[in-house]
Amino acid sequence: MASSNGGLGFLLPPVIHNQDGEVRKAGFEFEFSGLNLETAAELVRQVFGGRDVPESTFVRRVVDTPYGDVTVEIDSTFLKQKHYERPLRSLGLDLDRLDTQPLENLLIGVASNMVPFEIGLPPIPVNELEPLEELRQLLHEHRAEGTRASLLYMFGLHINPESPRVDAPTLLNYLRSFVLLYPWLEERIQVDISRRLGPYINSFPQEYTRLILAEDYPATPDRLIDDYVRFNPTRNRPLDMLPVFACLDRERTLSAIEDPHLTRPRPAFHYRMPNSLIDEPDWRVAREWNTWVIVERLANDAERMDRLAREYLSARTKWPAALREFVSDYHGRNGEMAARVRV
User: Fold this and answer.
1) How many helices (H) and strands (E) does the chain have?
2) Which residues in 143-152 are b (16+ Cβ under 10 Å) and which e?
3) What is the pLDDT of residue 75?
4) How far is CA 48 from CA 56, 173, 263, in A?
């Protein structure tokens, strides 16, 4: 099936290969409502192939795709791990002998008014991201609902770009780039009010931002992780660094955070900021990816980032003119970016 892309393509990051010489990959998580899991899994299968394997009322997997298995589920640990059975068993009910399907259907129907369904895609090479727009188009055509369909929908599009290297200097550069560009990202993405008021993407504390932007901040693994978890002992940041820090030093990271069982070590950033506007016809996954690519561009321009950090720390406003000039200058120097991504 040909995808409708509106002329917007996926830009390549400045560093295409990882430390092993392989093309970097990125995972994507679509949060939505309005479709049942069976339909969502079938749409995934139409784009990526594979087989739909139901695991429970709350989880399905599309297996044997070219990139690995795709998870289609309701994003609720309470339901997926069947915690609702505990009070029923305490009342003496033998749930192993009862038909619980009607109860599970009721629970998933009620939960879907607040809890998103999620398609969790395996890592895809950054030069093969076009099928994501085909999946977005199919979800839109089947009337999936996104962030703005309800005040209760704090849905996001999560992007998990593989880090070029898993070492302290690289990870610090990406963190510094992100916090420098954060005011522009807020302005560009227009994060929905329900998500801004919710707890899931709380911004980095200003004290922490200024700490890591200091010119003499040491890029050592122990200091980088210890400072991060001291100020951010939570997954609920617009750029969640815990998975990649746990890949760098698992014990040091997981021993100091809330809900360590929810953090899976992996060599990737967890970029949680974009809305999931799956029901809006002009929305494109490529736009959100291309926005992330600007973070990558600055992260890999050390001289410019150092200068911007100095100006940020001396400025009286959150958004110094030099940062806005960086975005405008980058667009102006790169005709492809200027054509495809609007500031």
Assistant:
1) 15, 9
2) ebbbbbbeee
3) 65
4) 22, 34, 27
Of all helices (H) and strands (E), which one includes residue 188?
helix 168-189
Inter-residue contact 159 to 26 (CB < 8 Å)? yes
| 44: helix, strand or coil | helix
161's tokens: 């770009």
Please state, as a whole number, how many other Cβ atoms lie within 10 Å of the Cβ of residue 258: 12
Q: What's the length of the chain?
A: 343
Cα-Cα end-to-end distance for the chain: 31
Distances (CA, A) of 76 to 5, 82, 115, 184, 257: 32, 10, 7, 32, 20
Question: Closest Cα partner for 235 from 253, 247, 223, 217?
Answer: 253
Amino acid at 242: L
**CB–CB of 16/127 below 8 Å?**
yes
Q: CA distances (Å), 270 to each of 4, 27, 136, 331, in order?
A: 27, 9, 20, 25
For residue 36 the two structure tokens come to 């049942």
pLDDT given for residue 143 in this prediction: 95
**Cα 225 from Cα 168, distance rounded (Å):** 9
Average pLDDT for runs of 10 along the chain of length 343: 57 96 98 92 98 90 97 66 48 50 56 76 98 97 88 88 98 97 90 82 95 95 97 95 96 91 94 95 95 95 91 74 72 44 32
In 3D, which of 57, 29, 62 has the Cα closest to residue 43? Answer: 62
pTM of the model: 0.86
Taking the CA atoms of residue 41, residue 291, residue 185 and residue 314 in that order, the dihedral angle to the nearest 10 degrees is 150
